[in-house]
Design a protein that fits this description.
Order of helices and strands: EEEEHEHEHHEHHEHE
Radius of gyration: 17 Å
Number of helices: 7
Distance between the termini: 39 Å
Structural class: alpha/beta
Strand content: 25-35%
Helix content: 25-40%
Number of domains: 1
Strand order of the largest sheet: 1-4-3-2-6-5-7-8-9
Amino acid sequence: MNRPDMQRNSRTVRGVGAAVAVAASLLAGCGPRADLIPDPEAELATSSVAVHVGTTRARTPDGLWSRAEPDALNYAVIDVSVPPERVPGLVTLPGARPDPREDFLTLRVGTYRERAAFRAEARRALAGGRGGEEVVLTVHGFNNRMGDGVFRTAQMVADFGIAGPVFHYAWPSRGAPLGYAADRDAVLVARDGMQEMLQDLAAAGARDIVIVAHSMGSQLTMEVLRQMALRGDRAALDRLGGVVLMSPDIDPALFREQVEDIGKRPLAALGRSA
């Protein structure tokens, strides 16, 4: 699959040493971790999902991304192979012998040199998708590494048959159970990056953006929407088709203030506050 103005990473896979990841919800970050190094076995897969990723994680010398160090917004597209022999709702990760029939695997990783190239690719994805001008943007929660959110997004696309292009915002969570305080700070640093991604999606022609956020990602989402409302960024804010907050990690009083500042929006909160 050719994408203009992109750099390809084609490193040999290393095993992640885990067999099955069982998550409690669509974007949860528990259990074994997803590896973003392309796996040769993924070439044998019969189905794959392209996840368009915006992230404020810093790039690393090996062409991937830091676990926690923040940086300016940068973009990638990650193709994830989807196993035909899977249980809906589960992301199965490979052990010592990856099997594309049973495991989710990284197929390809491409990066964009500049935001304009990402907008052009998003425009092409919208034109070629079956979902019209609707896009889904997922936002991961606490204790997630970058691969966790990407694989969970691919699983959601496969299980729900999402027709349009799917995007994922990866903020620099430490991906550690004891990193809650650090992740709280990381959410605040990541606000501008998510706003810029929403602006780029709107500029690419997305007219119906549905945000699906989990856990601490829900607080990030609400803070970004509040920030956009206070700054008068209507061009992107008015493109929202819906906001789904799953197990939102938000103080109720803060949530009420956020909603008041944002104004009337299609909003659904599912599950208990994490």
